[in-house]
Design a protein that fits this description.
The protein has four domains: about 100 residues, no CATH class; about 50 residues; about 110 residues, Nucleotidyltransferase, domain 5 (2-Layer Sandwich); about 130 residues. The protein contains 16 helices and twelve strands.
Length: about 400
């Protein structure tokens, strides 16, 4: 490890040496300027990498670097331009320690990116005395470097879901690698099969052939696109979306029972019990359980609907498809003569999508189904913190790097 004898040595990039230091520039007593002098005469073209022995012209420029405590540090150096014989044009030289915006060093841009992972752009801009659009540009450079270091994905198990990015049914598709626990694609124009096909096209036919499992909700375009581009992959419907349909059916039964009862005293047992009915019995506190006991004693139909809702979760505990089918058939048989039409519609929906639900019984398909929903929650946090994002490319970078390690 290189030891710095002076503070100036810590701010000397390769090929330069510190020759002078100024204090109190820009009317700020906490600003330092370290003047750098070149050690080598050769110049590298910033476009093609051609090494040239001479340069076309040069310009003095001050580059913002990492702070030293409360002091803002600037590096003053000459930036050259070279007449490249390969590009047949005048190009700016390549300096690896500079960011894409040559007025800031790369390590300073990465420090801004690391801070933006925890705070908003406005707060970082105020803290570092920068404009917010500069902070955003530096963070985008940091996010692109994170993606480059993560490498191209080769997924075996993928999770597919849509996320709303604006009002008016504006959706984008998020595809995650369930094996590596990271989002790998964010895009599309909507949630149609054509938008889903863009992911498989970007992934390539060879990598599509390696997909073994595709986890999704019961949206028909997702299934059609998977069967077309990855026919060897098993389709698995997300458990949380299936149970959400069952919760909606229970809520419909609750509303119909409330409307059916005309006596005001009878409605008091149902009013205010929506949260308790949609919650699992094990998650309820003492007051919630007592309220449901009173409700079930007064309304037999809601009692049966709640018991059927609680018992349906056992379907994902079976390891053989035959036993899971027997359980579902007995569950459906319990609906007879109960006059629960929303539950009957739900059972018919399960029957139509049975292959994608029963696929969870196979040992090789036992994957965590909550990761995709967790990604959606993180995307909503990003949108709320920014009060909405109009730059879709910036949102895409934030989504794809939210689970990657910091650099």
């Amino acid at each position: 490890m290189h030891k710095c004898r002076r503070l100036d040595d810590a701010y000397c990039p390769p090929g330069f040496r510190a020759c002078h230091k100024l204090k109190g520039v820009y009317g700020d007593p906490y600003a330092w300027v370290i003047i750098l002098k070149r050690r080598r005469k050769k110049t590298v073209c910033g476009t093609c990498g051609k090494v040239c022995r001479s340069f076309y012209d040069r310009q003095l420029r001050r580059v913002r670097d990492l702070n030293c405590g409360k002091r803002r540090v600037y590096l003053e150096l000459s930036i050259r331009r070279v007449r490249c014989p390969v590009c047949n044009a005048v190009r700016q030289e390549r300096l690896d320690f500079l960011s894409d915006n040559c007025r800031y060093s790369r390590q300073f841009a990465f420090e801004v990116g690391r801070r933006c992972a925890r705070s908003s752009i406005k707060d970082i801009a105020r803290e570092l005395h920068l404009e917010w659009h500069v902070v955003k540009r530096l963070e985008k450079e940091y996010l692109k470097e994170q993606l480059r270091r993560a490498g191209n994905p080769t997924p075996k198990q993928i999770g597919i879901d849509e996320v709303s990015i604006a009002k008016g049914q504006t959706y984008r598709i998020v595809v995650s690698d369930l094996g590596r626990k990271r989002p790998i694609w964010f895009g599309g124009r909507d949630r149609s099969a054509a938008s889903m096909a863009e992911f498989y096209t970007a992934l390539g036919s060879r990598k599509c052939g390696g997909i073994r499992l595709a986890v999704m909700d019961m949206w028909e375009p997702f299934r059609l696109a998977a069967e077309l581009h990855a026919p060897q992959a098993a389709i698995l419907y997300d458990r949380f979306h299936v149970l959400q349909h069952l919760a909606d059916a229970l809520d419909q039964v609750r509303r119909s029972e409330y409307k059916r009862l005309e006596a005001k005293n009878a409605r008091l047992f149902i009013k205010g019990q929506r949260y308790n009915l949609l919650s699992h019995w094990a998650n309820l506190k003492y007051r919630g359980r007592q309220a449901l006991k009173l409700l079930f004693a007064a309304n037999r139909r809601l009692n049966i609907a709640y018991v059927l809702k609680e018992s349906f979760g056992q379907l994902w505990g079976y390891e053989r498809e035959g036993w899971a089918w027997r359980f579902f058939w007995n569950w459906w048989d319990a609906l007879k003569w109960q006059r629960l039409k929303p539950y009957e519609d739900f059972a018919r929906m399960i029957l139509r999508h049975w292959p994608g639900i029963a696929a969870y019984c196979r040992p090789e398909n036992k994957v965590s189904l909550g990761f995709v929903e967790g990604i959606n929650n993180k995307i909503r946090v990003i949108q709320r913190r920014a009060y909405g994002l109009r730059d879709e490319e910036y949102l895409r970078l934030k989504v794809l790097t939210m689970t990657l390690p910091l650099i």
